[in-house]
Design goal:
Rossmann fold; Arc Repressor Mutant, subunit A; 2 domains; 5 strands; 53% helix; DNA binding; Sig_transdc_resp-reg_C-effctor; DNA-binding; Tscrpt_reg_LuxR_C
Amino acid sequence: MFKIVNWMLVSRSQLLTDLLECRWPQEFLIKLTHASPGNLADKLDSHLVSVVVFDLATVDLQQSYQLQRLIEREYSSIKTVFLNFPRQIDAKFLIHPATSVGVFYLDSGISEISSGLNDILKGRSVMPFELHQSMLHDDTEDETDSLTIREREVLQALLSGSTNLDIANQLFVSESTIKTHLYRAFRKIGVSSRGQAIAWAQTHMHEVRC
């Protein structure tokens, strides 16, 4: 069981930051600091942090994914929690079993979040049941590290210089769907940026073409 003493909130909402700074330190007996997506890495170097809480209502999925990957690689002792997790978008690629300990949907109430955070303080993980089950299914499939046909198509399109919107139009899906395919592919091939994905595809796409 890990001991949580210092938490860091990553959010662009000053209102949320002020609210939680008033409530959380007294409720959970923690020290809460604030970071923006742009200065999180610097703050992690200068602060002793046990848990990083991402506010997905104000931090976009791409930045959250990149920051989560940074924590996985360089700060593996830090745990992550996601507030305002979207229901309508497949954002499971953000969650890493070794570091992610809490997920709260956008419509989660304060009492539900407080109860969940108390469980996290006791060393438990808190994740919606249906999301947990869905990830178990994905883990079984991902053990082969195989890219889906659609993920291969999206990676192939990156090589031609297409934007996400271009790819969405080519495949007759939404831009958010393309982002989901990209992030899932990123995790499977072990990269964290579009440039790295392009470099990987230039070397390996001959191995994954249908």
